[in-house]
């Protein structure tokens, strides 16, 4: 059994759970507040705080974990990233109050108090910028610190930016771009578990890849095939299939980016395509 540490709550938890389910690894929890769950035949999930996952994986309490790149970097543990899973995208940013007039890091005064739950990354960022600051550690809600008079500046995660805006703060610089990562201990040695985890990563990535693509089928006049090929590049060009009892039309199948379906359908219609069908893809392994 390989143990995978998954976030027990918050933004990453729901998306991680959905990703495993879509990859055919349904998380079968033992009760609502279960700390462990079965995850297929060879994996077991343990649900812990996203902040603790780097530690658990580095110490070998879990064979792999899914958590934010921000937390991996802050932990400073010896971890190897197997995959960027793309969800939970955010940035760790330096932000100042609107009335401070600060628009760049250089104008943050020496000795400024910086509230953050990322003390290590914050120290490293300001040290690299040759700025002397004082870190005020908080465990969350850093955006309140300037209003309480305990800090002048904050370093916090930003996604849409609305939390900063409603608190009268604005971004000054980006410390780190983050998203959910699958991590393992850098010093792992077991070849068998490495293979199983590589297979798991491949399965998760096939689901992520499939989400951005659609499978498109249409019947088109044989005489328009050259034009259809230009509209439907697909992964390796469209598959063209003869239709029984129809000499004039052929069926074309192709994998197309979801974001381009609307345009492609319009162009196919102008080429007299009929019976256009667009479906989701569960997994895609090119
Ligand atoms: P937003 O208002 O969308 O910019 O979100 C900012 C708030 O959500 C801050 O309190 C952040 O700490 C938190 N947040 C945003 N994105 C993430 C993330 N990917 N992981 C954890 N917390 C996040």
Please supply descriptive tags for the structure shown above.
286 residues, alpha+beta, D-Maltodextrin-Binding Protein, domain 2, Alpha-Beta Plaits, 3 domains, 7-stranded mixed beta sheet, 5-stranded mixed beta sheet, 29% helix, binds adenosine monophosphate
How big is the Rg?
Answer: 25 Å
Strand content: 35-45%
**Biggest beta-sheet profile:** 7 strands, mixed
Write down the overall mean pLDDT.
93
Across the major sheet, the strand order is 2-3-4-1-5-12-6
Model description:
- This protein is an alpha+beta fold.
- The chain has 3 domains: 2-87 and 179-210, Periplasmic binding protein-like II (D-Maltodextrin-Binding Protein, domain 2), CATH 3.40.190; 90-178, Periplasmic binding protein-like II (D-Maltodextrin-Binding Protein, domain 2), CATH 3.40.190; 213-280, Alpha-Beta Plaits.
- The mean pLDDT is 93.
- It has a 7-stranded mixed β-sheet.
- Strand 14 (239-243) and strand 15 (246-257) form a beta hairpin.
- Helices cover 29% and strands 36% of the residues.
In short:
The chain is built from nine helices and 16 strands. It is of the alpha+beta class. It folds into three domains: 2-87 and 179-210, Periplasmic binding protein-like II (D-Maltodextrin-Binding Protein, domain 2); 90-178, 3-Layer(aba) Sandwich (D-Maltodextrin-Binding Protein, domain 2), CATH 3.40.190; 213-280, 2-Layer Sandwich (Alpha-Beta Plaits).
């Amino acid at each position: 059994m390989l143990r995978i540490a998954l976030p027990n709550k918050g933004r990453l938890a729901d998306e991680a759970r959905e990703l495993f389910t879509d990859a055919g690894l349904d998380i079968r929890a033992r009760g609502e507040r279960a700390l462990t769950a079965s995850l297929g035949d060879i994996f077991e999930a343990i649900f812990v705080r996203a902040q603790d996952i780097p530690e658990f994986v580095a110490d070998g309490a879990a064979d792999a974990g899914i958590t934010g790149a921000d937390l991996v970097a802050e932990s400073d543990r010896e971890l190897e990233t197997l995959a960027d899973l793309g969800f939970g995208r955010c940035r760790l940013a330096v932000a100042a109050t609107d009335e401070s007039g600060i628009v760049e890091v250089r104008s943050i005064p020496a000795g400024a108090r910086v509230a953050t739950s990322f003390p290590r990354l914050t120290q490293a960022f300001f040290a690299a910028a040759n700025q002397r600051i004082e870190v005020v550690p908080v465990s969350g809600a850093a955006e309140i610190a300037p209003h309480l008079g305990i800090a002048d500046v904050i370093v916090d995660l930003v996604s849409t930016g609305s939390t900063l805006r409603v608190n009268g703060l604005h971004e000054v610089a980006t410390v780190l771009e983050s998203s959910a990562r699958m991590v393992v201990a850098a010093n792992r040695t077991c070849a068998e578990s490495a293979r199983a985890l590589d297979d798991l990563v491949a399965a998760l990535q096939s689901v992520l890849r499939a989400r951005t693509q659609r499978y498109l089928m249409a019947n088109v006049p044989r005489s328009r095939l050259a034009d259809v090929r230009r509209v439907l590049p697909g992964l390796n060009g469209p598959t063209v299939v003869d239709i029984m009892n129809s000499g004039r039309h052929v069926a074309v199948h192709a994998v197309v980016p979801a974001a381009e379906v609307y345009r492609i359908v319009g162009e196919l219609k102008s080429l007299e395509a009929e019976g256009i069908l667009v479906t989701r893809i569960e997994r895609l392994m090119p």
